[in-house]
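Structure ticket #2291
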Amino acid sequence: MTMEVLVAGAGPVGLAMAAELARYGVSVRIVEKAAQRTDKSKALVVWSRTLELMDRMGCTPTFLAAGRKATAANMFAGSKRLAHIEFGGVDTPYPFALMIPQSETEHLLEQHLNGLGVQVERSVELLQFAGDASRVTSTLRHADGSEETVESAWLIGCDGAHSTVRHGLGVGFEGDTMTSDWILADVHVEDMPAAADVNVFWHADGVLAVFPISETRFRVIADGGESKGSQPPPDPTMEQVQQLLDDRGPGGVRATDPIWLAGFRINERKVKDYRVGRVFLVGDAAHIHSPAGGQGMNTGIQDACNLAWKLALVCHGTCAPEPLLGSYSIERSAVGEEVLKAAGRVTTIAIMRGEVKQTIRNHIAALVFGFKPVRDEMAEMMTEISIGYPDSPLNGPGNSEHETPRAGERAPIRVGETPVGGGERPRFALCTEWDAKTAQLLAKFPTLLEAEVRRPYSDDGLWLIRPDGYVALATRRGEEDLVEEYLEKLSLSNN
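Resolution: structure written out below.
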């Protein structure tokens, strides 16, 4: 077998997928039918949780140097500000939205991947594949028309909304297309108030959202009303963009120098299962939704980070395929469902029609967002810090009702501490006080546990942290046998 994993698709998600596998020492090829990376801004926001996971990958510093930090979001109805949501209070090393065009995200991720010894094979298209109990056989077509048959242990479809892998599996992509037209404009804007923040304007005619990209460059998104016909809406003109800013925006701003103008419609679709045998779906191949909140690409990259460590442990022969690989679809499908619902709700509320409905909406929003706990909860949701796996089959037993963080929750990141899973092999971390029992655990599971224990979150607590920074097991000191039983169930030598 020539490789362990074939990744189809080299957008941000595919690049992150291949990079994580390569970092963990898994042999991987990544193919992309497009001849070049995108030159469009497309997905614009990298949220806090994604930056934390990229920190494990080792590429967050290059992103921070290239992006622009937005530390707050504002919501307006006319001239009245309904909400000011600050990200600075979120418990993360990266309490902001990092604004960076997708074209630059792909450039930086590809550089990172190249540094790990893997090159993207462009103008190479996955035509078809077939899997059995031991391998996946794929047919690739190269730019000169020649075809190549390759075998891999696993195939991962990161090939977007029109995924060849998803179509080849024959799984349903359930959902709907929203019945409204939208416009997108990547332009320069002069005299934008609160220019460093994300600004959303609710207007009688629809919504307008303005995202900072650089000091003078902004992303403008607005709905254009009910769809007319089955064809996608035309690209907007600069005159239309300026009119939208005049009608719905803060006033006194001027749009110039367009970089990208596009009309689009919003699809909200998702597969039921992210895995069929030896084939996985990741990112837009598995779920697409409203751009409200800018969480599509982030959700996809987090899909990749969830799958990579599990697949690496299986490829290295450290762990049995189950329950690790089965947990990928269970965990990420639940997250995808929540993101889909939340983005849909936000979009539906933003484009609500009717004066009475809009008046009630604005009044309720002003009232609700007047409470700091609500604003804090919204900030945690937007930054994706609140994402967890409460119903994961990987959550171990223990007295988690007495200890926080609980199983399935994100483990808090302490200043100056090396991220869990940041090494060349995926390993769990023990958070507890050192004693003879922990020493025995480290000696028994050297390929599954970090060599040193980490500080516990409370003196009498014991935590086992997954390689992706989520809590696998939370209990009390003295119950190390629960950790031993947990790791034995994962270990291939005990299956």
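Closing remark: The domain at 3-39+102-173+271-350 is CATH 3.50.50.60 (FAD/NAD(P)-binding domain).
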